[in-house]
Design brief:
This protein is of the alpha/beta class and 447 residues long. The chain is built from 13 helices and 18 strands. It folds into three domains: 119 residues, 3-Layer(aba) Sandwich (Rossmann fold), CATH 3.40.50.12160; 227 residues, pyruvate-formate lyase- activating enzyme (Alpha-Beta Horseshoe), CATH 3.80.30; 72 residues, OB fold (Dihydrolipoamide Acetyltransferase, E2P) (Beta Barrel), CATH 2.40.50. The strands form four sheets. Strands 2-1-3-4-5-6 form a six-stranded parallel beta sheet, sandwiched between helices. It has a five-stranded mixed β-barrel with strand order 14-15-16-18-17. A four-stranded mixed beta sheet has the order 8-7-9-10. Helix 7 runs parallel beside helix 8 and helix 8 runs parallel beside helix 9. It is globular. The chain starts with a strand and ends in a 16-residue tail after the last strand.
């Protein structure tokens, strides 16, 4: 039988979809890239904003119209956090959450046999352990995601994630090492460590994020390690010192901010101040020269005045981020922020988001301009039909070079590239003479 997956949301969701694909492939199911050719469709959802919920519902209705006879399952954060999922998702044959994902193939086969609608969203408990999912390949990627942490204990006042993911729990060091070795054996030279609250890796058994990086650092075949989104907490001087000692760790950090206003951060239940955030960023820049720091910024949180927004705007400008993801506050049913006074109207939220996004474009261009003339080892990932090879520098600058020979692919090869000019959201450069791929021995002169 043919099975199609649709994924919304973060890198954790992408990892989990790949793991589910592996579960079904082991049972003989054939992965499909088109829903209309499939017997089963699975939607892996996100619930980080109300817009995420809306997208999942729209996708479900679209799939049901397109594939009236297919078995459709909805899984992930949205149904886990939504008590009334059974009523909200009437087109779904199977509804599951984020817990006990390994049961999904059984649920599908039970439905195929009995044709009885299934709702399976068990609640999380205080003693839950990390679910043993594994992923040996992510189709179309030259870097592999490795989920090492799940859950969150922080309960930010706007966020549903603790309800949809449970408390913090981490992949064991032995399982982490085994999966990283498997990915290296599958030909991946770059790992991206991901988690719901990645900075809390190992907290429940006396370890921290640096331990995870050091485990991966020691694995033959792994040449680069990247970190997913980080919360500022737990990034202590000791952790930073150990991270900076890893020669494989890439100097690119997505450090979640949400607001540059102290009052707003407190109302969000974010446990740091702008000053503490700035200090951490300076420590990262001191330990990782040429690093990039990116972030998320929310506008229009309840009670945010024009003065508060201006404070946040000026702080973002001061930070000189490499890039920012801006989004207006979205009311999440069941969170503390839903009941806060002084809710901001939609027009104001979006006006502030537009202004912050415009600042982000300027900061992005400033960052790219600062890369001119620098030389980086670039891991090439893909070719597009625009006459360029493209890949990422360690600091996650995307760099393109002109294709000299369209018959040669540079995919999964590393060459040193000097940056000559910038584009709207990338840089352009040339491979240095004498540069040689550490994957195949191909030299720049032979391209």
């Amino acid at each position: 039988m043919r099975i199609y997956f649709m994924t919304f949301g973060c890198k954790v969701n992408q990892y989990e979809t790949a793991a589910m694909e592996g579960m079904f492939a082991e049972r003989g199911y054939i992965l499909s890239d088109r829903p209309e050719n499939s017997d089963i469709c699975i939607i892996n959802t996100c619930t980080v904003t109300s817009e995420s919920d809306n997208k999942a519902g729209q996708a479900l209705r679209r799939l049901r119209r397109l594939c009236p006879d297919a078995v459709i399952a909805v899984t992930g954060c949205y149904p886990q956090a939504l008590p009334e999922a059974e009523k909200a998702l009437p087109e779904a044959d199977i509804i599951t959450g984020t817990k006990d994902r390994a049961r999904l193939p059984d649920l599908v086969e039970e439905f195929l046999e009995k044709r009885t609608r299934t709702i399976y969203t068990p609640e999380y408990g205080a003693r839950d352990v990390f679910e043993k999912l594994s992923c040996t390949a992510i189709p179309g990627h030259t870097r592999a995601f490795l989920k090492i942490q799940d859950g969150c204990n922080r309960f930010c006042s706007y966020c549903m994630i603790p309800y949809s993911r449970g408390r913090i729990r981490s992949k064991s060091p032995d399982d982490l090492r085994a999966e990283a070795q498997s990915l290296a054996g599958a030909g991946y030279s770059e790992l991206v460590l991901t988690g719901i609250n990645l900075a809390f890796y190992g907290a429940e058994f006396g370890m921290n994020l640096a331990d995870a990086v050091e485990i991966c650092n020691g694995i033959e075949g792994i040449k680069r390690i990247r970190l997913g989104s980080l919360e500022p907490e737990m990034m202590t001087d000791s952790v930073l010192d150990r991270l900076s000692a890893s020669e494989k760790l890439c100097p690119s950090f997505h450090l979640s901010l949400q607001s540059g206003c102290a009052k707003t951060l407190k109302a969000m239940n974010r446990l740091y101040t702008p000053e503490e955030y700035f200090s951490l960023a300076q420590k990262l820049r001191g330990r990782f020269p040429d690093c990039s720091i990116t972030t998320d910024v929310m506008t229009g949180f309840p009670g945010e005045t024009e003065e508060d927004f201006a404070e946040s705007y000026e702080f973002v400008k001061k930070m000189k981020f490499a890039d920012i993801h801006v989004f207006p506050y979205s009311v999440r049913k069941g969170t503390k922020a839903e009941k806060l006074p002084c809710q901001i109207d939609g027009g104001t939220k979006h006006r502030r988001a537009d202004k912050m996004s415009e600042l982000g474009k300027h900061l992005r261009r400033d960052f790219l301009t600062g890369q001119l003339g620098k030389t980086y080892p670039v891991l090439f990932e893909r070719e597009k039909n625009d006459g360029f090879h493209g890949g990422y520098a360690p600091n996650y600058t995307f760099i393109k070079i002109l294709t000299k020979n369209s018959e040669k692919s540079l995919r999964n090869m590393v060459f040193y590239v000097t940056i000559d000019k910038i584009g709207d959201d990338c840089c352009f450069g040339h491979i240095e003479s004498g540069s040689c791929s550490d994957e195949s021995g191909i030299s720049a002169e032979n391209l």
